[in-house]
Amino acid sequence: MPASPRIALLASNTDSARKALAAMQAAYPHVPPEEADVLVALGGDGFMLQVLHQHGGLGKPVYGMKLGSLGFLMNHQRTDALVERLHAAEPAVLRPLEMLALTESGTSTGSLAYNEVSLLRQTRQAAHVAIDLNGQERLGELICDGVMVSTPAGSSAYNFSANGPILPLGAKLMALTPIAPFRPRRWRGAVLKSGTEVRFRVLDPYKRPVSATADSHEVRDVVEVTIREASERTVTLLFDPEHNLEERILAEQFVS
Q1: What pLDDT score was predicted for residue 256?
Q2: Domain spans of the chain?
Q3: What value, to the nearest 5°, has the Cα angle with vertex 244 and ends 236 and 75?
Q4: CA distances from 20 to 40, 194, 249 (A)
Q5: Do residues 183 and 203 make contact, with C-beta atoms less than 8 angstroms apart?
Q6: Residue 230: which residues within 8 A CB-CB, separation 6 or more?
Q7: In the chain, which residues have pLDDT < 50?
Q8: Local structure of residue 252 (DSSP, 8 states)
Q9: H/E/C letters for each residue in 92-141?
Q10: Which among 235, 238, 229 has a CA at the least distance from the CA of 56?
């Protein structure tokens, strides 16, 4: 990173984030994201995901500051010493998932997910889903409220709340986790190599409709969803040394 990095300042629409943005803009020169060496995101984890989806293609590192209800992907918010913190920050390279969803109408929708891709039932009736890995059927019928595939960075979020495993950052693994499974009752999911292609087939899409969500992008009435790790897309998050993402993911496994 240059000695005097060009900084783009981005903020969520909350009052606290807008107030912090005004203070940062008064304190530091700033440029549009396309011209920046680093993006500084002011908000919560939801806003960080918005920034990654909107600007991840630029290939610029992102340094987040917590000004939201959740801040697992963020650093502590302070106006002072920003340039020094950026130079001292440790990188965490994330590789998102690619989702391709086929709907009942025959349309195909693609999206990226930095946390997880989840399938959820749309009505009171449980979803019936078959699971293929690398083209081979592994589970002929999962009766459940839903099922998801999570990245290591996202494994401590929705995946963990559904009793999925927390994965170490950089482990080159994905978590496959059912949501409220009814049958098979004892199946609790699987840990997969990051290169695995996961395909969900909705077995009764008209009677038991299912939606698919990649982070916050929802596609309704899906009949088939294919998920794989993105082969050419990465993003880099920056963290203060005392608050790095790898340590936070490790610490989550020892919280009672």
Answers
A1: 58
A2: 7-94+234-252, 97-229
A3: 80
A4: 12, 38, 27
A5: no
A6: 95, 96, 97, 98, 112
A7: none
A8: H
A9: EEECCEEEEEEECCCCEEEEEECCEEEEEECCCCCEEEEEEECCEEEEEE
A10: 235
Considering the four listed CATH numbers 3.40.605.10, 3.40.50.1220, 1.20.210.10, 3.40.50.10330, the one that applies to the domain covering 7-94+234-252 is: 3.40.50.10330
Q: What residues contact residue 101 under an 8 Å CB cut-off, 6+ apart?
A: 108, 109, 110, 111, 212, 219, 222, 224, 225, 226
38-43 and 7-11 as β-strands: parallel, antiparallel, unpaired? parallel
Residue 249 — left, alpha, or beta (φ > 0 → left; ψ -120 to 50 → alpha)? alpha
Full strand arrangement of the beta sheet holding 222-229: 108-113, 97-103, 222-229, 198-202, 127-133, 136-144
pTM above 0.85, yes or no: yes
Q: Is 220 exposed, middle or buried (0-12, 13-18, 19+ CB in 10 A)?
A: middle
Q: Do 7-94+234-252 and 97-229 share a fold?
A: no
Which residues are annotated as catalytic? 45
Q: What is the spatial distance between Cα 186 and Cα 171, in angstroms, rounded to a whole number?
A: 26
Report pLDDT for 244: 76
d(CA 229, CA 247): 23
CATH class of the region 97-229: mainly beta
pLDDT of residue 125: 95
Reference 58, options 34, 93, 38; nearest CA is 34
How far apart CA 236 and CA 94 sit, in angstroms, is: 6
3-state secondary structure of 90: strand
The sign of the dihedral angle between the CA atoms of 95, 152, 41, 61 is: negative
Both tokens of 200, joined, read 């969900």
